[in-house]
Amino acid sequence: MKIFERIKSSKLGHYFFGEYDGKTIAFGLLSLAISLFFMGLNLFYAIYAWSLWYAILTGYYLCLILFRGSIIPLGVRARKKHEGDESGLRQAERRIYLLSGFFIFILFAVMAIAISELIIHGKPGETGTIMAIATAAYTFYKTGLAIYNLAKSRRIGDWVSQSLRNLNFADALMSMVSLTVTMLATFGDSGDYALTIEACTGFGAAVLVLGLSIYTIVEALKSKEKGD
Known about the structure:
Blueprint: H1 2-9, H2 11-17, H3 22-48, H4 52-81, H5 86-121, H6 129-156, H7 159-187, H8 192-226
């Protein structure tokens, strides 16, 4: 991570990233780049296959990019504004964490729309093996990273890092749904069995994302009451 430490130590890097460690910067930038790529891929197939499912996924990844892209700048601004004021900084970062809970709720709403569309209209357009392979690779990467970082950030106790990693966890859950749909559309069938699997996977993931949103909001509000 030396390259990110050098970026952070520069005047411009310090302006954008503040005091955040190199790993937070690295994973944040990497996740942003991969989300951009995946958004473009879904947009391509939304047009190519004329699929509303992939169009909604494009909107989902656009929201994810905007939400991720706002967390670190807000954190840096809070650290500059409350420099030397540990209590004020903690409260500012707690508000960012609270905001991330509402971000995750919006992601849940988009997920619910996508899954409802899939159930109503059935199998999405054909995409082929390239999309299936890309989705599988993205899912395995995001799931492993999200689980690791979610546990680690709780031990660290950093509100901003936890906000980013909660978004990553929501991203990983949606990628599981996308993988299930893509694999069944590419290698499976479009019968009732496939629709049942897609519905169960989709609503299961959506419930977990909704639970994560509620937990994040409640945790932030409880922390405010305790004065943490």
